[in-house]
Structures are given as structure tokens and as C-alpha cells.
């Protein structure tokens, strides 16, 4: 990880869960991290915690709604100076909900990737790394109607990451692209997914020893620490007790 000290990283969804854990881990490793979310209060608190812990890196909170392309572009302009998933059944889901999930899980990811690559090229960075937090839902479809559209967006992330890898090779860069695909992680996700049934959401996390956000952060640092000639395409990880 020594070669990443002082480098700039963008972490989306950095206010809670996996995003917050990844941001903290990278700051601890000495990186300058731009952490974005629609609500930056928690990122500001995390930044203060990192500073109090005397981590060698810096966390820069940035307010950004990833469903708004103009805000994404503004964020990347600022960088130069410095997973959502509610139940949406296929046969009865609302178009607005599908559109929002596509906007955040697919389009926002694609826009962020495009702008990150542009930013690297402008700064003559040829050994950067694009890491997409995907899901095991991008590799299998479970028999649960309210996850099927979500799975479709995560399959898109799997395809997009491989497509990015191929385009980076065609561009003769040494920039790498990787998916991290976790199973059940104990975050706020289940409570958003089952927002009308908090008891059902809590039961998801009580049924097994789930992954923690810190486990995903460790996977990110593992991928970053791989030798520059090693391309890790996808890290699939799940709790030992998880069946699917």
C-alpha cells in the first residue's frame, strides 16, 4: 500500500456502511479521500474522527446526489482542485423506482468511471485503480421477487467492470478495474430494502454472522495492494453461513 500514500481516491456513498469503512481504511493508509453522499453530516463526523486518530491521510466530505449528472460532474471538477436497492418486483414494480435504481446503480457508476478516467488522464496517472462495489446479486438471481430488478442492475455492474477492463487494455494504460461482490453485509441496506417491515430487516442480520463493512474495506485494501502487474477482476465474498 506504500505506493498509494498521498494519492487521491473517490469513495461514493461514504456516509454509512461499506463506503464509510472503505473511506476510513484508505485515509488510515495515507490517501487523500473525497467522500461523497447526499448527506455529508456523517462524513464530516468521520473526517473529524480520522483527524483525531492522527491518520496520515485526509478525508474531504463532498455533497453529491449520484442520480444527478450535473452534481457528479461538479464533484469531479472539484476533485481536480483538491447501492441502493429497495424491493422492485418485475411484474408489479413502479417505473419510477426502477428508473431511480438504474440511475444510481448503473448510470451513476458509468458517469463516475468516465470522469475518473478523464481525471487520471489529465493528471498523467497511468497506474490508477477503479473499484466498483458490486454484490453477489451480480452473479446469481435468488428466488425473491423484490430483488430481481436489483439483481439486473448488479449484473450490469459485473458487465460494465469487465467492459472497463477491456477498454483500459485497448487504451494501453496500466489502470486496473475490479469488482468487490459481497453477500450479506450488516449495514443499513436491509432496513432500506424492507423499509415497511423493520422486524424482517432485523431478522436478516440476526440469522447469521454477517459480513461487516470493515470486511469489505479490507478487500479493497487487498486489491489495491496487489502488485501493479496483477489484475484482480472480481472478489466474491459472503458470510460462511450464507447459502445463496
UniProtKB/TrEMBL annotation:
A Pfam cross-reference name: adh_short
Enzyme class of the recorded protein, top EC level: oxidoreductase
GO molecular function: 3-beta-hydroxysteroid 3-dehydrogenase (NADP+) activity; estradiol 17-beta-dehydrogenase [NAD(P)+] activity
Catalytic activity: 17beta-estradiol + NAD(+) = estrone + NADH + H(+); 17beta-estradiol + NADP(+) = estrone + NADPH + H(+); a 3beta-hydroxysteroid + NADP(+) = a 3-oxosteroid + NADPH + H(+)
Signal sequence, start to end: none
Origin superkingdom: Eukaryota
Pathway of action: Steroid biosynthesis; estrogen biosynthesis
Keyword annotations from UniProtKB, A to Z: Oxidoreductase
UniProt entry tagged with the keyword Nucleotide-binding: no
Enzyme Commission number(s) from the entry: 1.1.1.270, 1.1.1.62
InterPro entries cross-referenced by the UniProt entry: NAD(P)-bd_dom_sf (IPR036291), Sc_DH/Rdtase_CS (IPR020904), SDR_fam (IPR002347)
KW Oxidoreductase (keyword) present: yes
Known function: Catalyzes the conversion of the 17-keto group of estrone, 4- and 5-androstenes and 5-alpha-androstanes into their 17-beta-hydroxyl metabolites and the conversion of the 3-keto group of 3-, 3,17- and 3,20- diketosteroids into their 3-hydroxyl metabolites. Exhibits reductive 3-beta-hydroxysteroid dehydrogenase activity toward 5-beta-androstanes, 5-beta-pregnanes, 4-pregnenes and bile acids. May also reduce endogenous and exogenous alpha-dicarbonyl compounds and xenobiotic alicyclic ketones.
UniProt similarity note: Belongs to the short-chain dehydrogenases/reductases (SDR) family.
Name assigned to this protein: Dehydrogenase/reductase SDR family member 11
Organism, scientific name: Cyclopterus lumpus (Lumpsucker)
Upper lineage: Eukaryota, Metazoa, Chordata, Craniata, Vertebrata
Amino acid at each position: 500500500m506504500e505506493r498509494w500514500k498521498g494519492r487521491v481516491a473517490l469513495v461514493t456513498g461514504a456516509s454509512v456502511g461499506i463506503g464509510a469503512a472503505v473511506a476510513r481504511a484508505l485515509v488510515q493508509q495515507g490517501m487523500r479521500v473525497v467522500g461523497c453522499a447526499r448527506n455529508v453530516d456523517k462524513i464530516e463526523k468521520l473526517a473529524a474522527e480520522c483527524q483525531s486518530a492522527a491518520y496520515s491521510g485526509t478525508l474531504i466530505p463532498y455533497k453529491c446526489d449520484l442520480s444527478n449528472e450535473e452534481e457528479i460532474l461538479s464533484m469531479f471538477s472539484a476533485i481536480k482542485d483538491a447501492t441502493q436497492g429497495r424491493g422492485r418486483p418485475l411484474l408489479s414494480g413502479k417505473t419510477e423506482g426502477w428508473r431511480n435504481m438504474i440511475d444510481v446503480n448503473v448510470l451513476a457508476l458509468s458517469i463516475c468511471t468516465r470522469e475518473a478516467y478523464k481525471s487520471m488522464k489529465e493528471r498523467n496517472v497511468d497506474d490508477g485503480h477503479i473499484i466498483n462495489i458490486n454484490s453477489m446479486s451480480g452473479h446469481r438471481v435468488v428466488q425473491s421477487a423484490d430483488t430481481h430488478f436489483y439483481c439486473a442492475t448488479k449484473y450490469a455492474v459485473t458487465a460494465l467492470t469487465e467492459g472497463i477492463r477491456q477498454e483500459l487494455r485497448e487504451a494501453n494504460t496500466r489502470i486496473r478495474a475490479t469488482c468487490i461482490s459481497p453477500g450479506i453485509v450488516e449495514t443499513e441496506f436491509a432496513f432500506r430494502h424492507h423499509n415497511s417491515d423493520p422486524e424482517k430487516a432485523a431478522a436478516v442480520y440476526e440469522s447469521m454472522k454477517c459480513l461487516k463493512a470493515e470486511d469489505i474495506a479490507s478487500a479493497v485494501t487487498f486489491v489495491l495492494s496487489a502488485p501493479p502487474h496483477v489484475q484482480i477482476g472480481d472478489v466474491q465474498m459472503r458470510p460462511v453461513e450464507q447459502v445463496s
